[in-house]
Write a structure and sequence with these properties.
- By secondary structure, this protein is an alpha+beta fold.
- The protein folds into three domains: 113 residues, Orthogonal Bundle (Butyryl-Coa Dehydrogenase, subunit A, domain 1), CATH 1.10.540; 91 residues, Butyryl-CoA Dehydrogenase, subunit A, domain 2 (Beta Barrel), CATH 2.40.110; 129 residues, Up-down Bundle (Butyryl-CoA Dehydrogenase, subunit A, domain 3).
- Strands 1, 2, 3, 4, 5, 6, 7 and 8 form an eight-stranded mixed β-sheet that branches. A two-stranded antiparallel ribbon has the order 9-10. Strands 11-12 form a two-stranded antiparallel ribbon.
- A hairpin with a 2-residue loop joins β4 and β5.
- The longest helix is centred in the middle third of the chain and has 36 residues.
- This is Acyl-CoA dehydrogenase, C-terminal domain protein.
């Protein structure tokens, strides 16, 4: 079977890898960790200058017209470097949703500037960790939104948000501007040290033109978010496994590299197989989404394995993840935040954004 992706995806992924490797050095990562908001403006600017943001964006927004497979390649490359940039939230999700469902006015006012890097958008999907759905009631020719969204990625640096809310006729997705009266964003401190905000809407009034769409938009965003986070997770785990293998080749004990010990080599082999499995399920899911084929099961499968491999999943007979084994293999040097530990805290991000793996329909216990 041929699992190769498009030439454009390979080229774009290679370009992003080159940029990320040059910028995201260990010293640079430590400097980012010290910031109040872990947003890598230097890397973001280089991606803009290299036309990475626009390359895989819709042509209607001034992009290059490439699609899901190319965006997936970019996200995997960003994951390898633990890149603290809102490519998924601003370009892959928000701008693409505006291109597909939004009015021409929303596309030109918000979608195109997001693709060019002039504005930053994000989505407030919240998974299962919110305080109930945001409520949108009719108000003249528009709506009044009240409610909160927690764990909004890059919320503190965003210019606008796509927020699902409950209306009298069902779910609606609205574009909320950070300067709208009644909108408040509070930065949150997380163990991942990334840029996360708590969004509070207190009677925010918006015109009818701010309504992007209904249930179909919310479902579209949820599916693409799960796919994108799985792609980023593949990059995180692939890089973590690579670092661990290199450490096992160079770290010696009893005058022998620890990678030559049977127990260590077996655990790394398990990690290698698991990462390959995630790559396979992700490739299948991305291809089906790119072809507009039904992909709920395939995306859920990829997301399940991305979650499972990135967190410590314990059952009475099973205790194994790629990240936990990476830390176990390198724990003798894990005094503060070595690269493997940094990978581990990023690897649990999909669970915080998408909920526990046990809640996914593809979990074997479901």
């Amino acid at each position: 079977m041929d699992f190769s992706t498009t030439e454009a995806a390979q080229d774009l992924g290679g370009l992003v890898s080159t940029i990320v490797d040059a910028v995201c050095t260990p010293q640079h990562q430590r400097e980012l960790d010290a910031l109040e908001q872990r947003f890598d403006r230097e890397l973001w600017r280089k991606l803009i200058d290299a036309d990475v943001l626009s390359a895989a964006a819709p042509e209607s927004l001034g992009g290059g017209g490439y699609g899901v497979l190319e965006q997936t390649a970019v996200l995997v490359a960003l994951g390898r470097g633990l890149a603290a940039v809102p490519y998924l939230e601003s370009v892959t999700l928000a701008a693409a949703a505006l291109a597909r469902f939004g009015s021409v006015e929303l596309q030109q006012q918000w979608g195109a500037p997001a693709v060019s890097g002039q504005k930053i958008l994000t989505v407030a999907l919240d998974a299962d960790m919110g305080e109930g759905p945001v409520q949108a009631t009719s108000c003249g020719d528009g709506y009044r939104l009240t409610g909160t969204r927690t764990q909004v990625e890059y919320g503190p640096v965003a210019d606008a948000f796509l927020v699902p809310a409950e209306t009298q006729s069902g779910t609606g997705v609205f574009l909320i501007v950070v300067d709208d009266p009644g909108t408040a964003v509070t930065p949150l401190e997380t163990t991942g040290l990334d840029s996360v905000g708590h969004l509070e809407l207190s009677g925010v009034e918006v015109g009818g033109g701010r309504l992007v769409g209904g249930d179909e938009v919310a479902d579209w965003l949820s599916l693409r978010a799960a796919l994108g986070r799985s792609a980023f997770q593949l990059g995180v785990l692939d890089r973590g496994l690579q670092m661990t293998a290199e450490y096992a080749r160079t770290r010696e004990q009893f005058d022998r590299p620890i990678g030559s010990f049977q127990a260590v080599s077996q655990r790394l082999a398990d990690g290698y197989i698991d990462v390959k499995g995630l790559r396979l399920t992700l490739t299948q899911a991305a291809w089906r989404v790119s072809e507009d084929l039904p992909a709920d099961t395939e995306v859920a499968t990829a997301a399940f394995w991305a979650l499972t491999l990135g967190i410590v999943w314990r059952t009475p007979s099973f205790t194994y993840t790629v990240v936990s084994e990476s830390i176990s293999t390198t724990r003798c040097t894990a005094i503060s935040w070595p690269p493997s530990r940094r990978s581990s805290r990023w690897a649990v991000l999909p669970e915080r954004c998408g909920g526990s793996a046990a809640n996914w329909p593809t979990h074997p216990f479901n």
